[in-house]
Amino acid sequence: MDASYRVQSLLAARRPGYSLAQEFYGDRAVFDLEMDTLFLNEWLFAGHGCEIPEVGDYTTYRVGRAEAIILRGADGEIRAFHNACRHRGSRICQSAQGNAARLVCPYHQWTYDLEGKVLFAREMGQDFDPNAFKLKPVACESVGGYLFVNFSDAPPDFAPVRARIEPYMLPHRLEYTKVAHKTTIVEKGNWKLVWENNRECYHCSGSHPELCRTFTDAPTITGVEQTGGDNFLQDHWNRCEAAGLPSRFYLDDSGQYRVMRVPLLRDTESFTMSGKPACSKPLGAIREQRIGSMLLFHYPSSWNHLLRDHAISFHVNPIGPQETEVTTRWLVRKDAVEGVDYDLKTLTEVWDATNDQDRLLVEQNQLGVNSPAYEPGPYSPIHETGVRQFTDWYCDAMTRQLGAFVPAAAAE
Fold first, then answer.
1. How would DSSP label each residue in 196-259?
2. pLDDT tens, 350-392?
3. CA distance linking residue 228 with residue 242, whole number of Å
4. Which helix or strand (DSSP H or E) is residue 128 part of?
């Protein structure tokens, strides 16, 4: 059966409010279809502008079969190009990060400027037109210090996303930060299991002792419903917004992204074992204390915490049907000095522990889902509204990308 038709059939048979069919969590054909139809057509988080601060700085970003070079040009603008030479397709940049005055393909030394124009192509004949062989662009957007790319030829308009999330991000001034630490772990589980684990805190009290020192597992904080009756949350929004910090819950109509500011427990201020700030230099010009965490998720590639003293971004990159890379970056103010303004262990220990705990949970979840006994189970209507919202978004997005489903009987 054609993979597209097979997935459409599974989506049509899905039971709302229940986890997905087994094939969605490990089947190679389903995974390949997701990579080509979902990940190559949606906007994806690809890093931070502060990682390429100087002219010629670049980073590479690979997802599935596609790879982008994201670089800062001579005019200071950030652009992205496919990491494929226009000669015979070789990869140009082979390092994850670097600096180059020009881009030189290592195979035959075709050379491009930082705007993708051909500068040198040896002995290509009199009829060769270099203007016809510029590097192919990748759509790239910078918002609040975050970089997003889209590999499709006709990317969706990013302007509505920017208009909604940028006001929440700007007070943190992440363009004036640096990456203090970065880790990448491989979780032996499907990327959707990674997301499902993130989108609930039903498991937190039993699995995350370090995180639960400061982060509540209240469903009004971790879910997508029932926020209206939470006076603790409402009071926090009122206080933060009076200080000029946009805070209220917003969920995009399509379900792709959500933004809100949430309080931490008691009088804690940061994700540390003590609850005290991890960095003594606050981000941006934020003077208000106890602002909690600004939460942002953007499917299918990133969730984030922006605090007063530092920010943490998480990047989800599927590398196989049952393997997912999760990259975590800790950002501090760029003039903060390690050992003086922050201690790396204090900054990272809570999420280092939480990431490893989540890795084990996802891997055990994957092993159970692989069992012949597995069948979709019901989500908690109290604690797993966020999981249901994610799987609803996934199913809607896949349906949209694959087009209208025609039942087999009608197709004959």
1. HHHT--TTHHHH-TTGGGT----HHHHSSS--TT-HHHHHHHHHHHHTT---S-EE-TTSSEEE
2. 999 999 999 999 999 999 999 999 999 999 999 999 999 999 9
3. 19
4. none
pLDDT tens sequence across 247-274: 999 999 999 999 999 999 988 999 999 9
| Contact call for residues 309 and 278 (beta carbons, < 8 A) | yes
Identify the residue whose tokens are 């609930």.
200
Count of all residues that appear for the chain in the document = 412
* Strand locations in 43-123 (E): 44-48, 57-63, 66-72, 78-82, 97-99, 103-104, 111-112, 118-120
Main-chain phi, psi angles of 404, to 5 degrees: -65, 135
44-150: CATH homologous superfamily?
Rieske [2Fe-2S] iron-sulphur domain (2.102.10.10)
The two structure tokens encoding residue 16: 């709302």
**Separation between Cα atoms, residue 381 and residue 173, nearest integer Å:** 37
Q: What would the CATH number be for the domain defined by 160-369?
A: 3.90.380.10
Beta bridge partners of residue 316, listed in sequence order:
326
pLDDT tens digit sequence for 84-123: 999 999 999 999 999 999 999 999 999 999 999 999 999 9
Q: What is the DSSP string of 151-164?
A: -SSSPPP-HHHHHH
Domain boundaries, the chain: 44-150, 160-369
The structure's pTM equals 0.95
